[in-house]
Amino acid sequence: MTEAVTRGKSRAGDSLRRVEDDRLITGKGKFTDNRASAGELHVHLVRSYVAHARVASLDLEAARQSPGVVAVYTAADLAADGVNPFPAVKGFTRPDGEPMVHPDRHAIAGDVVRHVGEIVAAVVAETQAQAADGASLVEVDYDELPVTGSLEQAVEANTPAIWEGCPSNAVAYKEFGDAEAVAQAFAQAAHVSKLDLRNNRLVGNALEPRTVLCEYDAETGRRTLRLGSQNVHGLLGGLSATLGVPKETLRVIVEDVGGAFGIKSGLYPEDVIVAYAAAKLKRSIRWRGTRSEEFVATVHGRDQISHAELACAADGRVLGLRIETQGSVGAYPTGAGLAIPLMIGPKVATSLYHVPAFHLQATAYASNTAPLGAYRGAGRPESIYLMERLMDQAAREMGIDPVEMRHRNFIAADAFPYTTPMKEVYDSGKFGEVLDRCIEVSDWNGFAARQAQSQATGKLRGRGLSCYIEWTGAEWKEEVRLEATPQGLTCYSGTQAMGQGIITTYLQLLSESLDLPLEQLQVLQGDTDRVQGMGSYASRSLYIGGSAVKEGAEVFLEEARKLAAEALEAAPEDLIYQDGRFTVTGTDIGVGLLELAEQQPDQTISTTSSTRIPVPSWPNGAQVAEVEVDPETGKIQLQSLVAVDDVGNAINPMIIAGQVHGGMAQALGQALLEDAVYDESGQFVNSTFLDYALPRADDLPSLQTELHPGVPCETNPLGAKGVGELGTVGATPAIVNAVLDALREQGVTHLEMPLTPQRVWAALNH
Ligand code: SMO
Fold first, then answer.
1. Which of 197, 295, 455, 571 is deepest in the core (most CB within 10 A)?
2. Mean of the pLDDT values across residues 368-394?
């Protein structure tokens, strides 16, 4: 690790301070809501307060007469103007093998609303306050329908069907592995551990609520949508299909994004409504989401129930694993909402263990709740939580040390490439070494002394462990364009910054490859007119997009070398490139890169290249948590949390540490605090920060993170493994396992997340 620098040259491996931060922490961020647009109008959305109903009537007259109101739209207006439902989600089958059917999702609901917060009308006015006033005058009559208010209700027999043609609310199903082989393994087992648990439903709660601004170009009729999105081209595609207009008539621009974590990766109804109104009224239109709206109208994360059984030999070696998972998709399916329980989670269901026999059945259920989607980890936290709870339980039941239990089951360091029962190929890993290092750093073996100290103050102390691996990726290709002008060099990338420091990381790669100082380099993202690419999610940016940056720099230098050879009348191979300058070997005749750009007819040197990394990376690690529980109140205080991670080659260790820290905090939220609760009538009970608890600074101890060196990824030129979600995947089970360890002597063997003081106290006083 070298000294942090902000100017001059940098390279892979530097803990370069984030170039983004100076601007972001001094109020110079360019978030969508910071941008004023001349003559803009404001939208206020009328949202359903019931979970399931026929919209019997809508009275818009009073709203239309309200001061400042310019227009009021309903589903009928959008339909009359050719707006389509959201693109259908395809490729899934129901439990009976028939193709999945799902109701059309409209930007503004038509006849039926299926969750609280669904939009039934949009009021456009000169000011935000006038739009809100107008919206308050919209009269909606709902004929209420029977409600399936939660996943738990949906999985029960005979609950009200909420999608036509889907009588059981079981909307899609997948099965993996070999049921027969698993049955045989269980028949031979010395011990079987069984576990039922729930993975609590979470709200993403990005620091920046969504704002959508659409500008209308009167001359061309072209619309520019500005918002925080993880994937401008994905959004453009969905928007153009839904609006029924060619992509060329739309442009999507993303500037700064105040946190996304998956929830800003897809098309939202608000995007469609704002773009629709802009064309209809030929004005700029803004929707600014309130925190309350974000609770009920962004996609939610997790929400799964699982039953798992682990068959072991007498020495603790796993013989077989059987899992049944029920995942919620909410009121309407999103691609991610289905893929998470049915495809992505299962990819790591056997985690970093050798599991000889494996069988998994996953079913997705509809309910009258907000749609589910991606949220940091998206399937991997659910699978790893299940596996690590099961590993700890099996170890305890068999009287095996939990560290030893893992060691007996790790995929061996000499077994790579290793093909899992899910047919995934792990390229590299040293799981045993990583765990041993985490045991050492966390002083696992010095626990007894700390436990005695806690006891002396009347507290119960526990230590917990988790080992984890992550599938990362999807959309395995990225394109970059490098463009040198006399002013400097710009790299255009279709991956997307959203606070994760990717610009800094790319600048390091560019500075190293091009041997140029940082002040001559910039990275441009988030504009469908200027970049190509598939955006940022699933920890894909660095190892796919960064690999594309590195290869793009090589392609660019190749082209520049040719141009320099012409300019210097020398053979390309006789040129030496150093410090941004080509020099003819053995002379001082040369030309600088930017100077060379200036000599070109259009004063530009530009190359475009595309890089394919066709396989995932497999970051992995181990975490140890220690907690103190106050038996009087049930309150848990996290005392320490240590992570040792294998992220392959580290491009910026400081940024990685920040990513892991943030992930750990989010994981603590799920473990101890957060739960989006719907009641039986489909009301979202705790949809405000008064009732939905996010982690705060004093919930967290000083976090310790370390990277395990020497396990580069074998399948991309950077040798990097994705890191964005890793901390979240690992910390949740470590914390819960620690709490269960603390309560073990009291006979508590199971608790559901979040481990609130009430739940802990009740378990201690049952
Ligand atoms: S949960 Mo992510 O942005 O794939």
1. 295
2. 98
Q: Which residues is 608 bridged to in the sheet?
A: 481
Q: Say which residues have a Cβ less than 8 Å from residue 510's Cβ, sequence separation at least 6.
A: 489, 491, 516, 521, 523, 549, 553
Ligand 1 pocket mutation, candidates 265, 383, 536, 544, criterion most atoms within 8 A of CB: 265
φ/ψ (deg, to 5) at 197 = -150, 165
Q: Which residues line ligand 1 (CB under 6 A)?
A: 230, 261-262, 265, 374-376, 378, 537-538
* Position 5 pLDDT exceeds 80: no
pTM, whole model, 2 decimals? 0.97
pLDDT of residue 157: 83
Q: What was the pLDDT predicted at 199?
A: 98
Which among 700, 581, 724, 590 has a CA at the least distance from the CA of 652?
A: 724
Can you read off the two tokens belonging to residue 42?
């404001």
Across 204-356, the runs of DSSP E, i.e. the strands, are 211-216, 223-227, 250-253, 285-288, 300-312, 318-330
Helices 431-441 and 402-409, packing angle to 10 deg: 160
The whole-angstrom separation of Cα 100 and Cα 332 is 12
In the beta sheet, which residues pair with residue 521?
489
Q: According to the model, what pLDDT value does residue 710 have? A: 85
**696: Cβ–Cβ under 8 A, 6 or more apart, which residues?**
none
pLDDT band at residue 158, thresholds of 50, 70 and 90?
A: confident
Alpha carbon of 708 to ligand 1 centroid (Å)? 24
Which atom, in ligand 1's list, is nearest to the CA of 540? 4
What is residue 14's predicted lDDT score, i.e. its pLDDT?
96
Does residue 1 carry a pLDDT above 90? no
Q: What is the DSSP letter of 765?
A: T
Q: What pLDDT is attached to residue 167?
A: 87
* C-alpha 614 – ligand 1 centre gap (Å): 19
What atom in ligand 1 is closest to the CA of residue 377? 1
In sequence order, the 6+-apart residues with CB closer than 8 A to the CB of 216 are 222, 223, 278, 279, 281, 282, 283, 284, 285
> How far apart (Å, rounded) are the C-alpha atoms in residues 336 and 266?
9
| 126, 43 contact by CB (below 8 A) | no
For residue 147, name the pLDDT band (cuts at 50, 70, 90): very high
Nearest atom of ligand 1 to the alpha carbon of 378: 1
Among protein residues, the one with the nearest Cα to ligand 1's atom 3 is: 262
- Measured from the Cα of 260, ligand 1's closest atom is 3
For 528-544, b where at least 16 C-beta lie within 10 A, e where not — what string? bebbbbbbbbbbbbbbb
Asked if 504 and 560 touch (Cβ cutoff 8 Å), the reply is no
Choosing from 537, 617, 666, 726 the residue with most ligand 1 atoms within 8 A of its CB, the one to mutate for a pocket test is 537
User: Under the phi-then-psi rule, with left for phi > 0, alpha for psi from -120 to 50, and beta for the rest, what region is 593?
Assistant: alpha
Model pLDDT for residues 715-757, shown as the tens digit of each residue:
999 999 999 999 999 999 999 999 999 999 999 999 999 999 9
Express as a percent the part of the chain with pLDDT over 70: 99
- How far apart are the C-alpha atoms of 678 and 647, rounded to whole Å? 38
Best of 534, 725, 726 to mutate for ligand 1, by most ligand atoms within 8 A of CB? 725
Q: Is the pLDDT score of 3 beyond 50?
A: no
pLDDT of residue 7: 81
d(C-alpha 370, C-alpha 299), whole Å:
6
Mean pLDDT calculated for residue range 652-662: 97
Length of the chain: 766
Taking the centre of ligand 1 as the mean of its atom positions, its distance from the CA of residue 157, in whole angstroms, is 32
pLDDT in tens, 585-639: 999 999 999 999 999 999 999 999 999 999 999 999 999 999 999 999 999 999 9
Question: Secondary structure of 404-446 in the HEC alphabet?
Answer: HHHHHHECCCCCCCEECCCCCEECCCCHHHHHHHHHHHCCHHH
Indicate if the pLDDT at residue 6 is higher than 80: no
